[in-house]
Design brief:
The chain is mainly alpha-helical. The model has no long low-confidence stretch (mean pLDDT 82).
C-alpha cells in the first residue's frame, strides 16, 4: 500500500481553490464592467432626453413686442367666433373687415 501524501493533497486543493476564486473574481469584474457600461449609456440617454425636454424652456428669447397686448377680451372672442364659423360653415370664407 502506498502512503498518502497529505501535504501535497492540501497544497493541490489550495491551488485549485485559488484558481477558482480567481476565475470567479474575473467573471464578477467582467459582468460589473458590462453593467456599469449599460448603466452609463442609459444615464446618458436619459440626460439627453432631459436636455431635449428642458431646452425650450431656456432658449426663449424675450423680444420687445411690436405692439402692446390687447387688454380687452373682444379680439380673442372675435377670433374664436371666426374659427367656429369656419368649422361649421359650408362655405368658409376669410372674414376680414
Amino acid at each position: 500500500m502506498t502512503p498518502i501524501d497529505i501535504p501535497s493533497i492540501e497544497q493541490q486543493a489550495r491551488e485549485l481553490r485559488a484558481a477558482e476564486i480567481h476565475r470567479v473574481h474575473g467573471i464578477f469584474a467582467e459582468r460589473s464592467a458590462q453593467m456599469v457600461s449599460l448603466a452609463t449609456g442609459s444615464a446618458l440617454a436619459g440626460a439627453h432626453a432631459f436636455d431635449a425636454f428642458l431646452r425650450p424652456f431656456f432658449s426663449w428669447n424675450p423680444q420687445a413686442s411690436p405692439k402692446p397686448l390687447a387688454i380687452s377680451i373682444e379680439p380673442a372672442l372675435e377670433r374664436v367666433n371666426d374659427m367656429a364659423r369656419s368649422l361649421f360653415s359650408w362655405n368658409p370664407q376669410d372674414r376680414r373687415s
